[in-house]
Amino acid sequence: MPVGIEEIAFYTPKFSLDMVDLANARGEEPDKYTIGIGQTTQSVVPNYEDVVTMGVNAAKNFIEQIDRKSIEMLLFATESGVDNSKSGAIFAKNFLGLKDGIRAIELKQACYAGTLALMQAKDFVRIHPDKKVLVIASDVARYGLNTPGEVTQGAGAVAMLISADPKVAVINDDTVYMVKDEPDFWRPLDSDIALVDGHQSTDVYKEMFLALWGRYKQENTLSLDDIAAWGFHMPYTKMAKKALDQILPEVSNDQQEALREHLAEAQFYNRHVGNLYTGSLYLSLLSLLDRSDSLSAGDRIGLFSFGSGAEAELFSLTLSAGFQEQVAKNRIQSMLDQRQKLSMAEYEAVFLSQHFDSKNEEKTDAPEHTRLCQFIGWQDRYRKYRIAK
Ligand code: CAA
């Protein structure tokens, strides 16, 4: 029985920063950021958004159009959760109006956990074909002002409904995965910024992609000619190119050209949003499906998921008839165009305005009169949210 993605939706906060402005402020060549690293703009998170609000705001794009009672489980993947004990899934379950009789849990392994959620959801639906699973992958990529990682920040969430009615794509039974203990990226419990050795991380990413691709081909008796296009986890868009370049010589020049063109489509939105950790691969998938006009139903899309530390998974989807309409509903380009561009001074002020201290009872800058879910501040050291029902 085919199981896969029925709905997929994306949300990112309404502020953005131009990477040319960032480069100029940090004394770097703009081309290093826009070409060498491959980032054009990044989403900037106001102090009234967090992984819960972004995840809820993504899922709200389709939740009202589906039968909520069919959702039996909510899997919430994040590296940047809001509490050391309580799961973001419980907040999200409430704000999305889901029934009490579900399972809801948060999953963590750097940028990889969204893929574990997807695979658990697929297995669950296979056994319970009348049930659906809501997967939310939501993160804030925060490296700090004046750090090498600053150009690779970003934020956003992808929500996916996994069911036996895969209107977007079927998740194939071809996955391969692996774990390697690596000190390339981590975030101590007392730190709100990630610590990273970016060059080591890139090497681990490339190595794991190559190792998994070798296993994938062997275990599934497939070759690169069977993959119409790729989506990648993209901390920065150049990283995906570095991975794909390793295997392109396996196919003809024409096929290499086609895969490169599709990679540019799969990089496009990530280039304008930045890293969103767990959601990054799925934004790349959305970008590919939304921007390509040459993919069609039945095409096999390869996906490479990676989380530093490190864990990776390589699998494929087969596109369903009508996937374009499902994806286009998101109107992602228009969402990105409507973001408000910040000056460097505004960006730094927003960056420093986050309410990480639970003893700070000041209200956040959450605007009134919005249907979006917002974090309004701490009260008795508990997070308070507002959402129009
Ligand atoms: N014009 C064009 N290109 C230029 C240039 C110019 N003027 N100047 C430099 N470049 C190129 C360089 O040649 C280089 O290209 P290659 O990589 O192809 O050689 C590129 O720009 C970057 O230059 P550097 O390596 O010198 O840059 P850097 O030392 O500042 O590091 C970085 C760049 C590694 C991406 C750094 O920004 C970083 O550490 N970022 C965060 C790291 C990251 O995201 N790691 C992945 C983690 S995985 C993840 O997402 C985390 C998770 O699991 C939760």
TrEMBL record:
Q: Which GO terms describe its molecular function?
A: hydroxymethylglutaryl-CoA synthase activity
InterPro entries assigned: HMG_CoA_synt_C_dom (IPR013746), HMG_CoA_synth_N (IPR013528), HMG_CoA_synthase_prok (IPR011554), Thiolase-like (IPR016039)
What EC number(s) does this enzyme carry? 2.3.3.10
Q: Which UniProt keywords apply?
A: Acyltransferase, Transferase
What domain of life? Bacteria
> Key word ATP-binding present in the record?
no
Give the transmembrane ranges: none
What region holds the Hydroxymethylglutaryl-coenzyme A synthase C-terminal domain? 256-361
Uppermost EC category:
transferase
* Chain ranges of the Hydroxymethylglutaryl-coenzyme A synthase N-terminal domain: 3-165
Q: Which family, according to the similarity comment?
A: Belongs to the thiolase-like superfamily. HMG-CoA synthase family.
Q: Which NCBIfam families match?
A: HMG-CoA-S_prok
Protein name as catalogued: Hydroxymethylglutaryl-CoA synthase
Organism encoding this protein: Fructobacillus papyriferae
